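Minutes, methods subgroup
Present: GH (chair), OT, SY

1. OT presented the first of two proteins processed in the latest run. Sequence and structure tokens recorded below as shown on screen.
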Amino acid sequence: MSVQLQSSTIVDRMNRLPVSKYFLRLVARISTGGFFEFYELFLSGSIGAALVAEKIITVSGLAYFIGAGFLGMFFGTSIFGRISDLVGRRNGYVYSLLIYSFFTIFMAFASSAVWIDIFRMCAGVGIGAQLVIIDTYISEMTPSSHRGFYIAFSQFITYWAVPVVALLAYLLVPTHFMMEGWRWVVLIGALGSVIVWWIRLGLPESPRWQEERGKLEEANVSMKQLEQEIINEIGSLPPVQSSHGVEEEKGKFSEIWAPPYRSRTIMLIIFNLFQTVGFYGFAAWVPTLLISEGITLLHSLLYTFVIAMFNPLGPIIGMLTSDRFQRKWLIVIVSLSIAVSGIIFSLMRIPFWIIFMGIIITLLNNWFSTLFHSYQAELYPTRIRATGVGFTYSWSRLSSVFTGFLIADFLKSFGVTGVFIFISLAMLIVALVIGSLGPKTNLRSLEDISSK
């Protein structure tokens, strides 16, 4: 039986916290794990093209390579989302990153395509949870008025992984120092195990999570430390305004299928099934798509690197717009823009326009990413937030397993234009489901959003 607390709760104290540079520092540290997830995600495009060019795998085999990573992420996202609600945001964050690093080292030294795929799948189990836990962590720790800004800032940091992996691929893939260059690119990603303990030091547990789990003493200690950090910076805090009590209870998976969360769960499953087609369909396949148009591997990697350099700018757009305009409608507008831009990209043949339209799609994709990562983390209560987000987001990983095979078939049968028509239709469905079913979330506390 739950116990209703009538005094000022951790939630009330969290909701009165002002915007502070402390949150920028906290989000920057938390986002380091996301950097490794993005490194792994965008690794497939750069080294996948190299594996095809070196005849280690075929174009059809590339679909297995990409699919293996996403299959692992499907299990990791759903499993660690639930684990994070049970053991805490910080512990789930650290353990999942260690799993990724361990298996990535094995992948770097794998001797065959089969073992490469197996170890990539295992690494995906660990890395797949990072964005879910990070989105949940940041949403619970930052002021509601700037929640979208902090998620976008987190993505700004993580998206630096894209130009980093593209540059490393461009510099290392053509080389053969002791082993193939692509193996060095993979091995560098495993450095997460070296820095993971530094990341963990000093990271606070979410006081919201501690309070929901009935860890009131620990929650109060974490809250006092957080409040003191901000007092040291700005001098004082606004008064606490008690709004409601908090129920000390353990969330259950079945809750995401009960009103009012059932409709949100269904909406997010449909959304994630199709959004990944547009997002990863372009990012993971663009080097191979360029090669299919007669561009050499080296030039393909160079074009990919130039496009990748613009990845961090998409989240900057998100930082400027996410809290200023309703996130729901921004997702709709940006989804439709991606659909149109993809068709235009497929018609380009001149290098300048290939790069230009690639940059436009990259900016739109990454702006889109900042919006939906903030949005989906707002729709469930604290006790089941990581469970709900992890389960629904895992469908994007499952979708990506099959998307690779579909894109390979479309590329073979209908060319690059056919691939982007497929991507555009997926983004139209994304715009429709969010526009028709999505609730409004801007400038509302997490508790208010999750109660209606």
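2. SY then presented the second protein from the same run.
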Amino acid sequence: MKKFFGIICLMLSLYFYGFGQNQAYKTGIVFKKLFLDYQTPNGGKFTNFKDYRHGAEIGLQRLLTNNLAINVPFRYGVVDTHLDSITCLKKRLYSLDGQLQYQFNNTRKIVPYVMAGVGGVMEDEGEFNLQIPAGLGFYIRLAPKAYFNWQSEYRYGLKEKRSNLQHGIGFIYLLGKSAGETDMDDKTKDTMDADMDGVADDLDLCPNAFGPKELNGCPDKDGDMVPDYLDKCPETKGMADMGGCPDTDGDGISDNNDECPKVAGPVDNKGCPKEEMMDKDSDGDGVPDTKDKCPGQKGTAGAMGCPDRDGDGMADFEDKCPDSPGLKIYYGCPDTDGDGIDDYRDKCPNTAGSVANDGCPEIRQEDRKTLEIAMQAVQFQTGSAILKSESGTVLNQIVDILNRYPAFSMTISGHTDNTGSASANQVLSEKRARACYEYLVARGISRDRLTHSGYGESRPISTNETEKGRSLNRRVEFNLVPR
């Protein structure tokens, strides 16, 4: 118990030290409803909300700098205890923490923060223990001095099974006044900032709405640097000389006043082209400039006056396959194998496959297993690239696999252990990969579907310190890749 009161004195000393050193910053009083989770960090599940227990918090907060605050929360809660408890399987907890918060954007309506600290916990049935909390939360401004508060923290316990999660919802009410503030005198009026946007009310053209300093504290929803109260198009980014509205067709008439906002026209015709302009066709492709997306390039009517080499109705600048007729749904590309994946994205465009395999056929699990086994099953005479007779069985299975998957090619790579010189191992690995390559070619597999290479001892998959490890490193790998 003495330790607990010692912690209380230490925390309050820290708080009032912060108070004494930072008279210019505001104090707040915090109230929260707590949800205590001693289950999750000790083998339970986070989603078992019925196992959460309840508590309450009251605390003091003091800003030390613009972004740094000290928080001293006192907490009370009731949690489950061990089965032989004399208090009906429940015990009460009392804790006092010293926490530091780093607040981001603390002049905004929503203020996120991170926190960390240390706290002492006294149990009415158990030992005093220290816990180290760390977490995050946010404030939402409800009024100039009142904020909604949510915080979640993980509390690492220095004693066994004392680690826990705590979540709190509540509010903080700010006390005190800004530096130099006196009751409703002229200086107070000069420094008041009701919307907390950093612009004093006497200079703020919109004192009750948050806005940037550059716009004298007035909001600008569309971010075009024209304040909403002057913006004729407050939801659409525009130009200051157009009253905050855009001019899509660039004819000098803002869209809100332009009867033809997508086609340039003179002011005396309300932004619409005159009759003699309606039929103008600068590139002579039969599509008038008013409807031509490419008025300087000869095109087709189907592509809105733009070039369309493959004639599929998709303009070349939008067509991902400009030389192959396709569908608009596939951005102008065909789907040769009809598997629902256009040829532009299909790694096997001539063989139907699945989306998960990038348009290539799925390789059966048993075939994948055969290729894995082949790494060790293909054997050579010691120190040479001559295949042993028993290697023919697995190599013939690889031939069958390649015949089943014509949309795939195969890479063959040889590897050795580190016995002998690196240069000799490199040559041996290349010869062994070449031997497998020649075997498959001799069984009817086209050379243009196969590549081979050797890597010597440079890519081990196990240790070379044991015989078993070295035997695993001596291998030939066979990998299917889309053609």
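Chair's summary of item 2: The chain has three domains: 2-175, 309-361, 365-482.
Next meeting: continue with the remaining queue.
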